[in-house]
Amino acid sequence: MRTQITRRTLLSLVLGLLFASMTAMGSCPGDFQVLLGQLQKQAHSMQDPSTLLDPYMRIQGLDFPKLRERCKEHPGAFPSEGALRGLGRRSFLRTLNATLGLVLRRLAAIQQHLPEARGLEKPPAARLSTQDLEMLKMARLNIHGLRNNIFCMSRLLGSSWDAAEPTQAAPGTSPPPTPDPGAFQRKLEGCRFLHGYHRFMSSVGQVFGEWGKSPSQSHRHRPPRALQKEARRPRPSRSSKRLVPRGQLPR
Ligand SMILES: *[C@@H]1O[C@H](CO)[C@@H](O)[C@H](O)[C@H]1NC(C)=O
């Protein structure tokens, strides 16, 4: 169990560095399938509770089965998968971008209340805790990396998509009202929020997965002539180009 966590942690860190460096480069992949593959990978890694919720639970001392049961997403805190599916691509990207903005703000608030930030004594498992704190920082970098790719995808889809798609209602992502919560209640709200975040990212991954299945739409940013030309040639196998396997990875 312990080694499994460590290996997953390392994998997440490596992915985090990868996305962070991509962000630092500030360049956009010009190819739709490459960009979509990156977005799918990012969503897939972010849906994993070991990247954020688990470290948070350990840092906050909430890592007990009874508390895990109570740590469930507030209904409506994040857009549902159905609502996301109902959005056009640009609206979906805008919703995702806006929601990630809220998550970043919430993570900043959460980090302000961590024992480390308040200068309190470190819990006994200090080594693990340090690693967990790094995971939280990495999660924020990853979100910035994803946002960068959302920007790239919005640009790739072009402004013509604006007119074609109705703008849907803003995401229902306002955090639930928590009037002056005690410290414990605040910790619990944090974990419910993060639970929702991972579920949301899983739904986002599902929707991005659908994007790869509709070639006519995914190639709409190309000039029509190029499309006609391509239609006469035999198409290369789509599955060979896909970067992320469709099925769930073993957890
Ligand atoms: C994402 O949201 C930020 C504000 O939080 C905004 O500055 C940025 O332009 C948005 N990006 C896209 C692609 O909509």
What is this entry, summarized?
Residues 1-26 form the signal peptide. The chain has twelve helices and no strands.
Properties at a glance:
0% strand, binds 2-acetamido-2-deoxy-beta-D-glucopyranose, Growth Hormone, Chain: A, 251 residues
SSE diagram, text form:
Elements (H helix, E strand, L loop, with lengths): L1 H24 L6 H15 L6 H7 L5 H6 L10 H5 L3 H24 L13 H32 L2 H5 L18 H29 L3 H4 L5 H9 L5 H4 L10
Helix pairs in contact: 1-7, 2-7, 2-9, 3-7, 6-7, 6-9
The site of 2-acetamido-2-deoxy-beta-D-glucopyranose has 6 residues, from helix 6 and helix 7.
What does this structure look like?
The protein is mostly helical. The chain has a domain at 30-118 and 127-161 and 201-211: Growth Hormone, Chain: A, CATH 1.20.1250.10. It has helices at 2-25, 32-46, 53-59, 65-70, 81-85, 89-112, 126-157, 160-164, 183-211, 215-218, 224-232, 238-241. The model is unreliable at 160-170 and 218-251 (pLDDT under 50). Bound molecules: 2-acetamido-2-deoxy-beta-D-glucopyranose. The site of 2-acetamido-2-deoxy-beta-D-glucopyranose has 6 residues, from helix 6 and helix 7. Keywords: Cytokine, Disulfide bond, Secreted, Signal.
